[in-house]
Amino acid sequence: MLDEKDLWKSSYIWIRYYGYSCVHYDKERQEVWLANKQKQHVAIFKTGSYTSQSLEFDKDRIFEHQEQINEFLKIEVTSYDIYFFTQKPFNQAILNVTTPIQIRFHSVQNLKNLSKKLAHPIAKRHLLLNNRKSHDFYKNRVLNQNLIEKGMFQFTPVTFSLITINILIWIWATFFMPHHTDIEIIDLGALAHFNVVHGDWYRLISSMFLHLDIEHLLLNMMSLYIFGKLVEAYTSSLKMLGIYFVSGILGNLLTLAFNTNSLSVGASGAIFGLLGALVALLTISKQYSQKTIFQLLIAVVIMAVISIFMRNVNIIAHLGGLIGGILIVYLGYYYQISKKAFYWLLGVAIVLTVMLLVKIFMTPSENIYNQIIQEQMQKKHYTQAEEMIEQTINRNYADDMTYYLSGMVIASQKSKAEAIAEWERGLRNFPNSVQLNYVMAIANRSLGDNKSAKKFIKKAAEIAPENNSVKILKRELDD
Q1: Where is the Peptidase S54 rhomboid domain (predicted)?
Q2: pTM of structure
Q3: Is 268 part of the annotated catalytic residue set?
Q4: Most CB atoms within 10 A, among 37, 141, 191, 322?
């Protein structure tokens, strides 16, 4: 037996799973109008008694007011589906028309009958689910025009997929992969300037899915749940995914341009991109109330306060992502209303991106592996430093400083002779290294071999004649 709750529940299913919005409710006619602006489609849910004449009148009413409907919805509606909830079936075929617009009638005797018209498996299951939700629950959801609240109950598969992927990767990294040292974190796919300029561009994306502790993961997933759902509900799944990745990449590019000596992981840049996109969407649409702004501000403040207590917060990525999200939305907006403004904004975006890339590649890149090795040496963790040196050499990331540090570790742990052998190995790979020639001169002088010491310091002086340390040692040896 159909009742009014079924009408509201069906309307709710269309809103939650198919991206419709309630645009009109006529209590006297017992009908709810839902519109999907992207599909240029209107779904009308009706209940109550009818006659053949009243059904024809419903159709004529649409034809007569088509211009006003389009003006009210700010789209050109191309098709209508009218779902009439009734125990008395009627002949749908004689009512349906295809020109000048398509209007289709559907006689709905029960929810099972209606479910056959649904292709979405989750929506179909939800429609048939015999839950205890009240008539008022569904009615309030359908009539709710608050953008934040409406967005939160819509079905958003991309948001849930991204959250699931992030959680699964965190479980994999935490329980099945080594992740305690910086080198191990780099191996997982963290963002590092040195690696990216050496060709590891995949890190612009891989780093967005890495979280090193549960607090970091929970904060980002909570934020993704809120802002991801809102942006996906307000735009579309594909557009939300595009905003997420482009914003995250822009945030990472900005990080690489201005932060060359540290590692970066996390989805924060992409999430701030969603926040920027949401702010831009609300600003453009002007469909916001004080309550909407207040709710959004509360979410932002909570994020900001929690971030204060997080370690190693990447403010640069946050800023880059925020700008990226705003930029993407305005590009889409101006593409629709002003091609001139669109191309101008696109040109600005391209110029800024090129400038970032130039900055990234023009900034001297310190070998982050050497930096990590030095940190371990300062802590007197020589065994770990030795392991990291071996990994660095095996991965072909070693330079002359790597061999210098390796020799220093060997000298402290083994013998000076073995250290000299290591520095000689480094010189075979980097014969023009000032650092290695200088340390070889020091080492040979300490062994009393001034002839060899002079040979190495002479080479160092030829390479770097203005180096003060080299000049002092050369002067001492010449005397």
Answers
A1: 199-332
A2: 0.85
A3: yes
A4: 191
